[in-house]
Amino acid sequence: MRIEKLADMNLERLTRKSYGNDAELEQRVSDILRRVRQEGDEALYQLTEKFDRVNLRKAGLRVSPQEIEYAYAQVDDQFLATVRQAKENIYTYHEKQKRTSWFDAKEDGTVLGQLILPLKRVGIYVPGGTAAYPSSVLMNAVPAVVAGVKEIVMVSPPRADGTLLPEVLVAAAEAGVTEIYKVGGAQGIAALAYGTKEIVQVDKITGPGNIYVTLAKKQVFGTVDIDMLAGPSEILILADETARPEELAADLLSQAEHDRLASAILVSPDRALLEKTVEEVERQLADLPRVEIARSAWEQYGAAILVKDLDEGMALANKIAPEHFELVVAEPFCWLGRVRNAGAVFLGRFSPEPVGDYFAGPNHVLPTGGTARFYSPLNVDTFMKKVSVINYSENALNRDAESIAHFARREGLEAHARAVEARKK
Predict the structure, then answer these.
(1) Which of 274, 232, 237 has its CA nearest to residue 256?
(2) Of 172, 260, 230, 265, whose CA–CA distance to 366 is shortest?
(3) Which residue is catalytic, options 94, 167, 174, 324?
(4) Which residue of 99, 116, 339, 371 lies most exposed, with the fewest beta carbons within 10 A?
(5) What does the alpha-carbon distance between residue 46 and residue 57 come to, in Å, rounded to a whole number?
(6) 194 and 250 in a common domain
(7) For the chain, what percent of residues have pLDDT higher than 90?
């Protein structure tokens, strides 16, 4: 990979704004959704056999208590302790986000307020495929538990033997998931959104997945709510001469190994640092287990960009709005106030992206594809809704009736005006 100046860069290639804009895929997903809506569980059986080569009639659609008990027997004590500590960290962080209902009583007897209520039933999608993610179980389920959601339903594609990864099942049990189903892809999203005989419809779907999952979430939005439309993973690192090439290379590859569409970008005003890091990426790729995936992502969506100074680098970062943004500079807190668009910010060389992925506490379900300009990470509010409360006193209504009626008539809504005036003395 060569070092490129900012002026010569094709940012469209790096930001992948076209991800998900595929009419043929949209139609395939639409057909899957229609089948599940019309045929229910039978469609889930047939589609899972077609796409995952698993017979759910034999393997079972719903994960049984015995399967969860067996999963615990298959994981080691260190993993279980790690999951429990990560859960505690995530719970503590998200608990600080929780808000309560409020009421404001006026002197005239009017009471205005807002009820802040948890959703009743939510669905979380946990990816399978090239990797399995018990961390995603924690990141989706724990905030829902903090919010007070009573029914947390998980779907995930089964392995070839008709089971889910033991680590995923253990994480689900520890996090408070109440139902688990062995179905993935667009058909899993359809089951959550529309409901089947076996799977009861949810109110909201969260969690990342592949392009079929993303497009399915897009199409069912309105029938249920969704968290966001997640695309391939991203990291952008802004570094100065104090950064270490071997660490930067490792951080870039930590995202490149996710999938072939992942984006890994290094930005610096120091050409020597860029060159050494690119060399180090090549060296570390050689013995990486997921080398083919990581190399493909690095070659297609990786970049080493030379900027004139850190100011220009920060402006570029805000324009790209990366999912993960590492500030590996001498004084990272001095630059934090300049960050406008990012899913999560990692400050300094001792805060690599995997710290946030697994353990620190902030959520790793983050906006991608530039949507950090307007989306937030998954959080407690994701699993809550707000209801306005209005209690007008007689005196307050008499005082405001004329203004309200006038407003209504300006909009041509006479019945609105009369509904107020009918109560006025």
Answers:
(1) 232
(2) 230
(3) 324
(4) 99
(5) 10
(6) no
(7) 91
297 and 217 in a common domain: no
Catalytic residue among 280, 323, 326, 353: 323
Q: What is the pLDDT of residues 290-347, one digit of tens each?
A: 999 999 999 999 999 999 999 999 999 999 999 999 999 999 999 999 999 999 999 9
Q: What is the mean pLDDT of residues 270-292?
A: 96
> In Å, how far are 90, 234, 326 from 351, measured between CA atoms?
16, 16, 8
Identify whether 94 is a catalytic site residue: no
416 is catalytic: no
- Put simply, whether the predicted model's pTM sits higher than 0.85 gets the answer yes
Q: How far apart are CA 241 and CA 243, in angstroms?
A: 6
Containing structural domain, residue 412: 392-421
Q: Is residue 373 a part of any domain in this protein?
A: no
399, 425 in Cβ contact below 8 A?
no
With 0-12 / 13-18 / 19 or more C-beta atoms within 10 angstroms meaning exposed / middle / buried, residue 378 is buried
- Going by C-alpha positions, the residue among 357, 359, 363 that lies closest to residue 383 is 363
pLDDT of the residue at 4: 82
Does residue 74 share a domain with residue 107?
Answer: yes
- If asked whether residues 237 and 204 sit together in one domain, one would say no
pLDDT of residue 384 exceeding 80, the answer is: yes
Three-state DSSP class for residue 229: coil
18 pLDDT tier (thresholds 50, 70, 90): low
Nearest to 174 by CA among 138, 217, 135: 138
